[in-house]
Design a protein that fits this description.
Blueprint lengths: L23 H4 L16 H12 L3 H8 L4 H11 L7 E5 L5 H8 L4 E6 L2 H14 L7 E4 L12 E7 L8 H11 E12 L5 H23 L5 H10 L4 H10 L4 E7 L4 E7 L3
Parallel strand pairs: 1-2, 1-4, 2-3, 4-5
Antiparallel strand pairs: 5-7, 6-7
Length: 275
Amino acid sequence: MAPLSDIPPTIAQNETTPASAPDTKNSRWDANALKGNPHGRTDKAERIREMFTAIAHAYDINNRVHSFWLDQSWRRRAVRMADPVRGATVLDVACGTGDLAQAFVLAGAGKVIGLDYTPAMLNYARSKAARIGGRIAEIQYVDGDAQSLPYPDQTFDIVSIAFGIRNVADPSKAIREFRRVLRPGGRLVILEFAQPRSGFVRFFHNLYTNHIMPWTATILARDGSGAYRYLPRSVETFLDPKQISDQLISVGFSKVLQQELTMGTCVISIGQVAI
């Protein structure tokens, strides 16, 4: 696998960017903001950035507690499905606090860059990586937009995004960017929540995500942004797995493989670029 030595240093940076305090008064995901489809809001990008700034400090613990400690196994499964990983150059988009980027390093990836739209999340990712040390500390974290990636065509072997594609203002534009920066034979890995197909499972899943999780997660994060009310609504109103597959095919991925996890509560989609 080719190195990323041709990426300008101003892009592949690893500097800490101070996070500004969120203005939750005007960007709160309250009942009024969630009445319709949150993905159709013109201010979605700003709301998402402020939301993640507000919950960054408790993001990891909420992920663990409210997935019943399954979220890391979901990420590891996504990495295994991206095979071959060893020696690959990887761009993890919407990397958050770095869990998926770290999983790629542990699987033997050659070079991993994590990109996120929220500086506060990147600060936590850098802090975690430095604390763990070893090859994890070599992950480069970059402030950037999934819809306009700061990399040349055909730069990466793998592009990944976990629980982030529905948070992008224009997911179809981001998917086209992912396709652009992938080399021939490259793979796009999308890990995203979904509505379970079984009516029985969906009933209890929705009871938990709509009524229990928003309350407990908000308390745990001391959150005033409404992030955990946005979460279930954003899943309900987002593309289903078939629509995601159709989008991947429409932008030039030659084949798509999908796998449901935990009774269909989340789905891994792998799109491959023809060689």
